[in-house]
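Let's do one together. I've listed all components of the complex below, 1007 residues spread over three lines.
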Amino acid sequence: MKLNQLTLKESLDALEKKEVKLEEIYQDLDQAYEEQNHKLNIYLSKNEQALVQAKELSNKPLRGLPIAVKDNFCTRDLPTTASAKVLDGFRPQYESTVTKRIKENGGVVYGKTNMDAWAHGSSTETSDYGPTLNPRNPEHLPGGSSGGSAAAIAADLAIVSVGSETAGSIRQPAAWCGTVGFKPSYGRASRFGVAAMASSTDSPGPISKTVEDACILLNAFAGPDEKDGTSSREKAPDFTSFLDQSIKGMRVGVIYQDVAEIAQTNQKLLKELEILKELGAEVEITQAMDPHPAIGVYTVVQRAEVSSNLARYDGIRYGHDRSNFGDEGKRRIMLGTFSLTKGHADQYYSLAQKVRTLYLENYKELFKKYDVLVSPTSPSYAKKIGSSFNSAMFGELEDMLLEASSVAGLPGINVPFYRDDETNLYLGASFIAPMWEEGKIIKITDAFEKNTKWNSWRNR
Amino acid sequence: MSVNDSQVKHIAKLANIPITQAESEKLATAFTETLVVVDKLKKAGASKASPTYQVTGFKNVLREDVVKAENSFTQEEALANAKVTYQGYFVVPYVLQNKDN
Amino acid sequence: MPYKLVCGLEIHAELKTASKMFCSCKNDPFGAIKPNIYTCPVCLGMPGGLPVANKTAIEWTIKLGLALNCKINLFSKFDRKNYFYPDLPKGYQISQYDIPFCYDGYIETSEGRVGITRIHLEEDTAKLSHQDIDLDGDGKPDKATLIDFNRSSVPLVEVVTEPDIISANQAKEYGQKLRQIMRYLDVADCDMEKGGMRLEANISLRQEGKSELPNYKVECKNINSFKFLEAAINYEIERQTEILQNGEIPTQETRGYNANTGKTFSQRAKENAADYRYFPDPDLAPIEFSEAEVEIIRQSLPELPDQKAQRLMKEYGLNEASARNLVLNRKKAAFFEEVLQLSQKDNLDNQKLVNALLNKKIAFELSDKAAVVLKKFKAANTNDSVDDKELETAINQVLKNNQDAVEKYKAGKTAVIGFLIGQVMKELGKKADVNLVRQKISSQLD
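Okay, and this is what the predicted structure of the assembly comes out as:
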């Protein structure tokens, strides 16, 4: 086995026991990069100083291990473009809080990963630098917007990676690439230095090979940040403390949305959830609010915030002028602008924020009955390359099962629950918990992952 | 609801996005497609709900009035990514002063 | 005049907090020795820069509101005002839309009360300047605009009045009082020349006797002194009167004021109310005050100029004009009050003391010790009582005995009066009030 295939936990243990050397891990990783990156288009830039930096960090918690970072996180030593031509060549003179903390904890930014331009999408093919291919099956999309970060894990081109989610952008590509994706509660991780998409839902989070790895990485960067007034005031818990816990008596509500496109996926998920029952959890099908209005809420809120968040890109202080926005960016900016104009703001923007309240209330009710809720992450398998260009609403429809929980700020984890032998494509389940209660979904997904055959690293 | 070409052009002006005629027509179609989905909001029965702008429920997240020079750029760092600079300033082609406040 | 002025003011002032409104950069745009040295990802509008509100700026805004008799919104928030301009790095300004911190206050003027609609807190823009630079490399200078972001995101309060102002003089008085109060509160320097305080007037006219608001409004900007404010309003009254008398309605527009010509000039027609697409800033949590917290701020208010003048009149028996003069600024008021307090035990004439100081008959600096100044005053003013008749007799005697000096005086060498005064004192054998003696002598000789 090549050392780039190790999980984060395995790498840390092997380094601790001196079974492997950092150089050896980097050697295997660099080789894999050379072989695959040009085919899959995962990294937009690579840190040529990675190993040098790694050696200096080997006594810190993350021991100098290589970490892939989505290209919307500002990094001093690597260009930051958010996959958008508008930011081509931009070299931030500052560091995002997430990457700063990763570095302080001994992580090395191995490279910056491809994404949908500005994180506008669920395919990674709206990137101004070309699509990333799904390592599990290159005829298919990796999902998005953190497609590069999820593909980096699926292709073993990083030990662990960082993505960001607004509504599905961590969990959906994780599902399509057959990896773990952990979107913490909104406010758990600082947004400082992350090119903003929708400010009221943007959440940085790990994409990883195992739930355990995600917890180790999240420990390195979660927690209060005085530079982000929306970040949690409370110290983050030790996320690894929820691993290997009994789930006996945990109440799991399965949100069964009766939508034709999801029917088959729902059936497969229900079958897999039997494992949780065997482990002592109570699993029950439940009804939640119709997801369709949530698509509207998310679409309006996100586009309104996008139109304002992208107003700073005028090419004066950095980057290039506004004629460089791609089609998707233009569409979102325009629709968001429209939804805030006089005469339309009440009908769209304000109304969307009211419907948002209904979802929050619905979750409040559901969480009185259940500790966690689960649904498929995506209606079905990864779609084929090119699919995203068929609809102005591609992403919103692919993420319809995640939007309600995202606009509510809830934490969620994607874990793989099925693999199709013929296509080698995965299905993922999204577990969600109340705000700030990541521990509950860590417990349940960790137990689930360790007792199914669908995690390709645990079952290699 | 549907959106016409002249509305799209007005929005493009507000959004400061240069668009061609062909783009304008394509955008009008995309608008209409999106608004079909968005119009479902009206059926959600939320007219009496109070809006949620932020989900954390935080209030009064304030900063003490303290200068932290370590968070500031040097002039060189500030200008590092600018296309045109002149004697420590950012530069744009001439614009009128004081458009607004 | 058949037309009456209808005028409201919008005044912006930069708060003098140590740091900026939404980031920890230094707030010192006027003291900066170079452009763009107090900037960061937040005030340069870089990707991922996030605002965090300055607590002191918010407290000072509340304080100003209380000083201006405003009500305070216990729940408030910041909103984004979206528009594009090179001095606005984020493409939106963080401001307050429908829930300003303060509302419904007033300032009293000698021509009546001026209602204050609202006071809100926002961030300032960058500073633009203009120069010819070769931008395209063809060797010829191009018109260019230079941008300095040291001012970007400096806290800025906007105080908006009702259209209550009825004369140019009242507008000036209102503005001066507002500035005086802000300086008393020590929250703003209000340096108008540098742009630390900026005036805008909305000016229109209505027929005398009418009470509804006119159906047009002319906005005057770029006014950087109260004198110019007064002049601009007076010019507009003239200009608009003429238009109205011709049966036309003045154009709704923004006009600038040219200090050289003393005239206003058209800058641009007002577009159909701009669409700023305000919405609550998702990066900033709302702000809530309790009544008790507002009360604490109210307790911290210093004595304000009007109250102080009233008290000085009452406690020291001063007339209104001199009381108002004494309270012009806090330092002056403090100095005079110290002198007045000290003078109490000597049972001096307070008004006379104040007059002597205000008319510079006693030389002093505000930094002088009160006791020293008082001593000078006493030395110059401890006069023996001399009745009029006694004085008149002495003067007549002296003038008779000093014909030479009288001739010289009449020939224009008026300086000899000093000699004559001395002679009168000698004749009297007492120390009389010098001014009185001077006055009597000259009235006899002139």
